[in-house]
Q: What sequence folds into this?
């Protein structure tokens, strides 16, 4: 039952990503050209409501649907991993025009070459895992 | 109904993304798409190569199901909810794309030169897709998250690390589009 729920949440999110055009390479290019408010509106409004929800959840100590206390972990403190990793991600995001969520969306939408992008993203993850201890964090 | 078949405005889409995150948190999970790539590596046996992939991936099965759902959502949205999937980007952007050699700005969802099957006979563009994908996968794990994990979840939790990562995303993206694209295309 829970499995079906996760599938449905994903399906809903996939439709939102496609219909919002956040999965479009053109929208990502336009965002980095500052030519339209569209992507900033999406991220900004998601973030405003996200902050409201997350802070409320933490302050009120909300419980999950299953009665467990909700714990939202803090990210580890560091600078280099976020700065260097972030820049790498941004370079790829602008070039491939898709972050991981939209990659799944676009394969579903029938853009065959995205399979190459997803496969190389998986290899990128693999290479990070292998080099992890040698990289500045 | 016809509104659903048109592109969704930002003030509908953004709140629905926040809703997705809220439901996952209320189910006791978190919202992050790129960690599925790590799970895929583990399933593929990458635990033999690095400790990073030695974890109980079955505990991440729920997130793989979300990803499968996202794939299904893309299929449904493209085939049943989008009679016209041309993305109405701004005239400025269309003009800039023309100078780079992309002629289908404003007329399609994705540029043909990169995302239709013709890319398989264009070695340069194929290499660019591979490179782009690699940087996304490598960078997301290095930074510990992607757009969903840092820009939405992490910033919602007021995490300084996520702010650093998101600034990094933009530095990388601006560098690519403004400095590297004119060299590449």
A:
């Amino acid at each position: 039952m829970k499995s079906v729920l996760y599938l449905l949440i994903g399906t809903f999110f996939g439709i939102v990503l496609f219909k919002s055009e956040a999965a479009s390479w053109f929208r990502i290019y336009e965002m980095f050209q500052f030519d339209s408010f569209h992507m900033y509106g999406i991220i900004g409004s998601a973030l405003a409501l996200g902050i409201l929800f997350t802070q409320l959840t933490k302050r009120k100590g909300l419980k999950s649907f299953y009665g467990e206390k909700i714990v939202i972990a803090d990210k580890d403190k560091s600078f280099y991993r976020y700065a260097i990793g972030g820049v790498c991600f941004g370079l790829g995001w602008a070039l491939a025009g898709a972050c991981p969520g939209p990659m799944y969306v676009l394969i579903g939408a029938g853009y065959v070459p995205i399979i190459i992008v997803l496969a190389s993203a998986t290899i990128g993850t693999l290479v990070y895992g292998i080099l992890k201890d040698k990289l500045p964090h | 109904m016809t509104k659903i078949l048109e592109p969704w405005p930002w003030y509908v889409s953004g709140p629905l993304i926040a809703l997705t995150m809220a439901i996952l948190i209320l189910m006791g999970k978190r919202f992050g798409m790129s960690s599925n790539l790590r799970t895929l590596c583990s399933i593929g046996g990458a635990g033999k190569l690095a400790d990073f992939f030695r974890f109980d991936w079955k505990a991440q099965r729920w997130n793989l199901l979300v990803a499968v759902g996202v794939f299904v959502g893309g299929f449904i949205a493209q085939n049943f909810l989008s009679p016209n999937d041309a993305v109405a980007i701004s005239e400025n952007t269309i003009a800039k794309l023309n100078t780079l050699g992309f002629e289908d700005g404003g007329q399609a969802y994705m540029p043909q030169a990169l995302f239709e099957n013709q890319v398989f006979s264009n070695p340069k563009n194929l290499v660019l897709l591979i490179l782009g994908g690699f940087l996304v996968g490598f960078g997301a794990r290095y930074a510990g998250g992607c757009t969903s994990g840092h820009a939405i979840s992490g910033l919602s939790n007021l995490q300084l690390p996520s702010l650093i990562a998101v600034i990094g995303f933009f530095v990388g993206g601006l560098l690519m589009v403004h400095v590297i694209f004119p060299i590449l295309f």
Chain B is about 65% helix and 0% strand. Chain B has a mean pLDDT of 96. Residues 42 and 50 of chain B are 10 Å apart (CA to CA). Chain B touches chain A through 126 residues (CB under 8 Å).
